[in-house]
Amino acid sequence: MSDPGAASSGSGLEQAAAAGVGDLSHVDSGQGQNKPRSLWSDAWRELRRKPTFVISLVIIFIVVLMAAFPTLFTSVDPRYGNLDNYLKTPSADAWFGYDVQGYDVYARAIHGARGSLLVGLFSTILTVLIGSVVGIFAGYAKSWVDSVLSRFGDIFAGVPFVLGAIVILTTFNTPTENPSAVRIITQVVFSIAVLSWPVAMRIMRSATLVAKQQDYVKAARGLGASPLRIVFRHLLPNTVAPVMVYATIALGAFIGAEATLAFLGIGLRPPVVSWGVMISESRDYFQAAPHMLLFPAGFVTITVLAFVMLGDAVRDALDPKSR
Amino acid sequence: MSGSRSVSWLALPVALVMTLTACGGGGAKDSAAGENPDGTVSIYGTEPKSALLPGDTTEAGGSKAVDGLYSRLVAFKPEDGSTSNLMAESITSSDAKVYDIKIKSGWKFHDGTEVKAKNFVDAWNYAAYSPNAQQAGSFFAQIQGYDDVHPADEAAKPATDKMSGLEVVGDYEFKVTLKGAFSVFTSQLGYHPFSPLPDVFFTDPKAFEAKPIGNGPLKFVSRTPNASIKLERFDDYKGEDKVHFKTLDIKIYSSQETAYQDLVAGKLDFMEALPPSAKIGGKHKADLGDRVLNANLLGISTIGVPSYVAGYNNLDLRKAISLAINREQITKTVLADSYTPVDGWVPPGIEGYEPGVCGEFCKYDAAKAKEYFTKSGFTGKLTIQSNADGGRKEPLEAACNSIKQALGVECEFVGATNFGAFRQIVDGHQLTGLSRSDWSADYPSIENFLNPLYRTGGSSNDTVYSNPAVDALLAKADSTADKGAAIKEYQEAHKLLAKDLPSIPVWAEKGIGGFSKNLTAAKLTFSRDADLASFRVKG
Amino acid sequence: MGRYVLRRLLQLIPVFLGTTFIIYALVWAIPQDPFAGKCGQRPCPDSYISAMSDKFNFDDPLVLQYLKYMGNLLTGDFGDTFSGISVGEQISTAYPTTVKLAVIALLIEGIIGVTAGVLTGLRKQGFLDNLVLVSTLFLISLPVFVTGFVLRLYLGPQGLDLMDTGVDTADPSIGQLILPGFVLGSLSMAYVARLTRGGIAENRRADYVRTAIAKGQPNSRVVGVHLLRNSLIPVITFLGTDLGSLMGGAIVTEGVFNINGIGGLIFRGIQEKEGVMVTGIVTLLVLVYLLMSLIVDLLYAVLDPRIRYE
């Protein structure tokens, strides 16, 4: 073991999530390969009975529905601002009230789900993808390659998350253009992924290190299986559990990170509507009109909560020790 | 899940806040007691972006200290910016080109040396000399010989380091020759780059930067970066704008919000501007009561229409946009009543202001707007660009919504992250639509609202507007020696703008500040500064 | 052990250089005008630009700029900002505040987190356990700035007036930093609680605990000596790593409470494009972070007898 305790940097939540998953990767993968099928089915049986699992799935389903079909929830145009409704508090007409531009906060919160979720989803995919590829490679390859890759990961992990994101986003916000929605989202996604992938890499790497020592992997290698086959057929299935758990929690964390970056004025911004954007718009008006902040912040919190709960439940279910 | 619970949990404190602040507002009046001539006054400040040299300070953070440290030839009246002699005994000119300036004798710098005519001349030469890289160097561009000390080509070494237009006549008299007649030069003299510098500065500028020595009512004590700048009353000061307290503490804040909290709590004595959150719903009036300060500011907000953007060079479109902005409503709501709608390119309060220059086109009329819009034949999307921070985004987004609803055209606010990024777009002529164009006067004169902004090649003519007729009128006004006659000509130029709408006047900011219960009196000036001479500390 | 430390120290060098170079390149090399907006409503005078370009070596190639900069840094010279203020001086006034805040946050999260974790770990499935589980989940999900804003508004002078929340001074007192410290530590506090709870619950069934109970040792001794000692190892290493990142300055928390620490300094530095400031602080932070994670690894070995480094 070369660096057993080295936890990740990253945004606070993600850090916490990753550290927890790290434990899992040591325990679980070892257990998992003995009787993989029954572990997963055991887990599923246990999960179905867990209220937190069911609740979080329901919340996530609703949020995804909002993001995909916002018009199911509201028929109000989130970009229609009427100053007659300036800062009106919640009422029967507008459940969440109106904001400073006279936009309907409820309509914006519903439409904001898409931007926030997209950022969370793409950042997670990218983070996990880069992290897994590098991690599995580092774990499986010779030790000097491992060293180089690990140090390379450290370079990015050494930058505090918020700080790194600010520097990247400020630098690449070329002010001479009117960035499109796609470009704004891509920028945020990339800056999150660039700073987070070492975490996923470490999880994947340590899971691979454990799995690599298993007899059947050695056997497969002895039988002359190609490295690619070993990685895909034998290693990947046994390392996927901790990464999945990490991804779930990270997705929640990245939605929170989007909100934080927007709050600092460098994350998503108009024309994109997202919860983070709404939160950053509410900053000056928080005292006079708390509903501008509290509703989108509530959406963020509940969504993050759902993903963290889901990840928690899955981890507990997969970890035999906690039963 | 816990939504309803948290709402009720929040509602109670809100009610408490309101009762608490209401109490605070009422208690301020019963304090006509004594006055403490040796008290300390703390004012809100931001970190200066340059050394505390008068010629290198062009932004608000440094100006606060520089204004107290140095006194200039003329002073501005806090209310309207009309000028009166301060260090000058007399300023005379027969042709508005050659000025004969006599200064009062007996004035001292903080190090005890006397202020003489050459201190002015040397300081101005230093600021203008390009290798010294002083940010306010261009303020001297009107003076003859400026081009020799500050060539247009930055790489070129200047031929000399002295402007030929400055000539020391005696210890207390010097002569200034301008390139051409320029009637508002006397107003310019009140701006802080025109301060004198003591001889000791020229021997060791670096040491001076660490401990500046001026001729103003306050002398430098200490500076802690990002925390505070301390100044103290200069007892040998001869001017009329003496201060009535001992120590001035410029407290550096990173946020107006905290500063405002401190102001209300009595831990900060003066703010020249209040944060947006304090103005919403008139909260500041409840918090501060009769300690709210108001002033007419010499600034104006317009929406610039860059002439170089295809599609916008269309008078009907500009008229349509101007008619479509509901200025009244936006200033009342989004701007929290801290701005007033304007009807021209010169704000009220400036000598020479005439009401209604913009006329019918600066009044909201959705039907007429739609009419002009149809006539313009514009298709596509309108955009308004600005930096998004500092509360710049909200009113412009509201303007966009107003345009959108009146004209039925898509309109979008495009924000740059900060002022620097936005200026980069503007300076590089890379705007792609309408843009925020706010101007606050360097010195109180109608000239300052026209020449830099609308004259061909003007230093801040960001929309690249060019109209020979306007240019001609402005040139003529500049060279008119008689102030009254000059103003008449500037007014003519102003009226021509209404025909072209090179930018769309929208609103002007009201100066709203406040002082703490530790003071019994304070005044806010037309330039949104503290009028330090008016401050009285409670005894 | 000594060899391990040496190897780790050597490994730090490329990581340190890599991180600082990336930041340096991001701050200085991307084609952007560092002077835009520096001089108010007007573009900066050319003379000013050329003087500043000289001062910061803008005309050199990037790698050379970086090396010159690092060279100065190694001799302890952090350079000056555009306005001629020494960066080193600014850092040395801001850093004590950040360290103070970090320590307070750490104490809060450690004390509250461990207490909650021990209480619930000993009594799994009770009401208290569920309460702590739910509230930690909630804390984890709540963005820090929301916690900060809500607490600041409702506890500060404009709310219940319980404490002083405007911390905009050069040298804030401990009292002023308690609320920000709580906000800053809240997320980790939740995690410490869960980590402790997990450890206690797991070790409670361990053989050595059963043995201790069977031997008839008093409950307090079982918990205090056997259980806690072993359950707290991961907690302590977590706290160590956390201190490393807390020392990096909390940009958001310092922003919400206007604390003049490293976080605020660096945020302003980025916004005002004070590249010297940004690179200087980042270099320092990276160094602190790397050293902290090394210390944590060593601590792990000291605390957990099962781990030995070679």
Automatic annotation (TrEMBL), chain A:
Subcellular location(s) per record: Cell membrane
Main location: membrane
TM regions (residue ranges): 53-73, 117-140, 152-172, 184-204, 243-268, 288-314
GO cellular component, one term: plasma membrane
PROSITE patterns hit by this protein: ABC_TM1
SUPFAM superfamilies in alphabetical order: MetI-like (SSF161098)
GO process annotations (BP): transmembrane transport
Pfam assignment, any one: BPD_transp_1
Protein keywords: Cell membrane, Membrane, Transmembrane, Transmembrane helix, Transport
Taxonomy, superkingdom: Bacteria
Species: Umezawaea tangerina
Membrane topology: Multi-pass membrane protein
Domain ABC transmembrane type-1: 113-311
Stated name of the protein: Oligopeptide transport system permease protein
Membership in a protein family: Belongs to the binding-protein-dependent transport system permease family.
TrEMBL record, chain B:
Keyword annotations: Signal
Keyword Disulfide bond found: no
The keyword Protein transport appears for this protein: no
Signal sequence bounds: 1-24
GO biological process, one term: peptide transport
The Solute-binding protein family domain, residue ranges: 86-460
Domain of life (superkingdom): Bacteria
Gene Ontology cellular-component annotations: ATP-binding cassette (ABC) transporter complex; periplasmic space
GO function terms (MF aspect): peptide transmembrane transporter activity
PANTHER family: ABC TRANSPORTER SUBSTRATE-BINDING PROTEIN, PERIPLASMIC BINDING COMPONENT OF ABC TRANSPORTER
Name the record gives this protein: Oligopeptide transport system substrate-binding protein
High-level lineage: Bacteria, Bacillati, Actinomycetota, Actinomycetes, Pseudonocardiales
TrEMBL record, chain C:
One term under GO cellular component: plasma membrane
Pfam families on file: BPD_transp_1, BPD_transp_1_N
Occurrences of domain ABC transmembrane type-1 (ranges): 95-300
Record key words, sorted: Cell membrane, Membrane, Transmembrane, Transmembrane helix, Transport
Location in the cell: Cell membrane
Membrane topology: Multi-pass membrane protein
Keyword Ribonucleoprotein tagged: no
Transmembrane segments: 12-30, 101-119, 131-154, 174-195, 276-303
Keyword match Cell membrane: yes
Gene Ontology terms describing biological process: transmembrane transport
Stated family: Belongs to the binding-protein-dependent transport system permease family.
Protein name, entry field: Oligopeptide transport system permease protein
Organism: Umezawaea tangerina
